[in-house]
Write a structure and sequence with these properties.
Layout: H1 2-21, H2 27-40, H3 42-45, H4 53-69, H5 74-78, H6 80-103, H7 109-118, H8 124-130, E1 134-135, H9 138-168, H10 173-208, H11 213-233, H12 238-254, H13 261-300, H14 306-328, H15 332-341, H16 347-355, H17 362-390, E2 392-393, H18 397-420, H19 426-438, H20 445-457, H21 463-488, H22 495-512
Antiparallel strand pairs: 1-2
Helix pairs in contact: 1-2, 1-13, 2-13, 4-11, 4-12, 4-13, 4-16, 6-7, 6-9, 6-14, 7-9, 8-17, 9-10, 9-12, 10-11, 10-12, 11-12, 11-13, 13-17, 14-15, 14-17, 16-17, 18-19, 18-21, 18-22, 19-21, 21-22
């Protein structure tokens, strides 16, 4: 298991590295491609263990928790009716319509409804990946986000009910309704209670001990795993529990940013890192599974391609239901298309597939996995293409990169000019100029090794020299910030200005923390 985890983590990191060179491609596609390579190369494939439902859900739980944490809880009250419509009504209608559509292919009705239920949960992280660089209308963006947070639980209940229908040959309507209310209601209670306890403990600890921020961050990271485990042990929805806890965590973050600013900043950095790594891991797994299942089918002689038709039909059925809901909700034709295509599938769909492995035959399971994987891929590819034509384009990452580079060059130029006006011993000036030029990557590979050799060969600056170097750099950073302040008054775009301003503040923080204690 350890080797398998290491391989998947390396693959996830590699996806991020490659994605940075190809910003126009969604990182999810790159992760799937790397997963396909791992599955095709026996050396790597043999080092990735078989996958289980529990593994998937413990990847999905923190993803949903972090998604909930980035959502303001006051939006829930404002959009409660729409949340219930999309998270419950839309899931049920989508399941029924997709189920009947698939049954027309000769698939048993119970199995068809099971596949329909599996194709209903959506993924906010995946939606963001297909709309990157584009402006999604606020109404659709908020609704898609709310839907993806809450339709996972209703999807899980329906999948469980349909799986029992397939296994037992009958569908118990009353039991399904009772299970839904018990699971969702219990999940809400557990999530709220656990969040209140964790928030109270963190706030108390933060106020009596400011030096415990490392423990605070570890507590924050472990929270979704703990809450999901407790909820599942109590036989209620762990997904709903972590969603509710994440929403409550958002309000805590808003009102306690400055108790320990460094902890808050490090928490945000860690949150983004974990979201990216976990999301990449899910899609790497998807690529590996595609290769493994197709290879097993070829070896066993089961080359039935019906899953392709089923996958396309499931996707189109859900697309139509979502489009009609948009029209009924008065979103207009374009808004309805955006809402329909924005229902992108991802981690939860894949996790749900592995929940039903004991309820279906081996051949049925392989067909379901491939069909649902096709739904996931279509739900990413189609909007990636269509959105480019129907949505307004935001500043592309490439264009933003050019603007950042332009401002960085001018910013460092101001810093160097400020240093030129003050007296410094030559060796200190050389060190300061090198550090400033490093801000814009102007130092060559040879320059780095030259400075590395000097740092390794000669003693460090004495206390007086270190103070001179620190003051010179702070003076330069001040000039750089003043330049960005001036530019911010003229340019409408503030996000890339904030990125540069943040870099300078972090550089100052590192400079002032001479012992690297904080």
């Amino acid at each position: 298991m350890l080797v398998s985890t290491i391989v998947l983590m390396i693959a996830a990191v590699l996806s991020s590295i490659i994605s940075s060179f190809f910003p126009h491609f969604s990182i999810n596609y790159i992760s799937i491609f790397i997963g396909l390579i791992i599955g095709l190369v026996p050396f790597f494939n043999g080092r990735v263990a078989p996958f289980h439902t529990e593994v998937f859900m413990y990847i999905v739980a923190p993803l949903i928790y972090f998604e909930g944490q980035s959502t303001r809880i006051n939006l829930i009250g404002k959009r409660l009716r729409q949340i219930l419509e999309t998270a419950v009504l839309l899931v049920i209608v989508g399941t029924v319509f997709a189920g009947f559509s698939v049954s027309l292919l000769g698939i048993p009705l119970a199995l068809a409804f099971l596949m329909g239920a599996l194709s209903t949960p959506t993924d906010a992280t995946a939606t963001e990946s297909v709309s990157e660089g584009l402006i999604v209308p606020e109404r659709q963006e908020n609704l898609l986000k709310m839907e993806s947070l809450f339709n996972d639980a209703s999807g899980i209940i329906l999948v469980t009910a349909m799986a029992l229908w397939v296994k037992n040959g009958q569908f118990n309507y009353q039991q399904t309704l009772f299970d839904f209310l018990r699971s969702a209601g219990g999940g809400i209670i557990i999530g709220i209670v656990a969040a209140l306890v964790m928030i109270s403990f963190r706030q108390f600890l933060g106020r009596i001990n400011h030096s415990a921020y490392n423990a605070q961050i570890l507590l924050f990271v472990s929270t979704p795993f703990f809450i999901y485990f407790v909820a599942e042990e109590l036989k209620v929805s762990g997904i709903i529990a972590v969603v509710c806890a994440g929403l409550m965590q958002n309000s805590e973050s808003v009102r306690s940013r400055f108790i320990t600013p460094r902890q808050f900043h490090n928490g945000l950095v860690l949150l983004r890192l974990l979201r990216e790594v976990l999301n990449n891991t899910v899609f790497v797994i998807l690529g590996v599974l595609v290769v493994r299942i197709i290879r097993d089918d070829l070896i066993s002689g089961n080359t039935n391609s019906q899953w392709i038709v089923i996958g396309i039909l499931l996707y189109l059925a859900n697309l139509l239901v979502r489009y009609l809901y948009g029209l009924l909700s008065k979103m207009g034709n374009k808004g309805s298309i955006i809402f329909a295509l924005g229902g992108v599938h991802g981690a939860v769909t894949l996790a749900l597939v592995y929940m039903i492995i004991d309820n279906v035959s081996s051949a049925q399971f392989d067909m379901i996995v491939l069909a649902e994987m096709l739904v996931i891929i279509l739900s990413m590819v189609v909007p990636s293409i269509v959105f480019r034509f129907i949505l307004d384009h935001d500043m592309s990452s490439k264009e933003a990169g050019k603007q950042i580079q332009r401002l960085r060059q001018e910013m460092v130029k101001e810093g160097l000019a400020a240093v030129e006006k003050i007296y410094l011993p030559e060796k200190i000036r050389e060190s300061v100029v090198y550090d400033l030029r490093d801000q814009k990557s102007a130092n060559s590979f040879a320059d780095f090794w030259h400075q590395w050799a000097k740092a390794s060969r000669y003693p460090e600056f004495n206390e007086q020299e270190r103070e001179l170097e620190q003051r010179a750099l702070l003076w330069a950073f001040r000039a750089e910030r003043q330049y960005l302040d001036m530019v911010s008054q003229k340019e409408n775009r503030r996000d890339y200005l904030f990125e540069l301003y943040n870099e300078i503040l972090l550089a100052e923080s590192i400079l002032l923390d001479t012992e690297n204690e904080y």
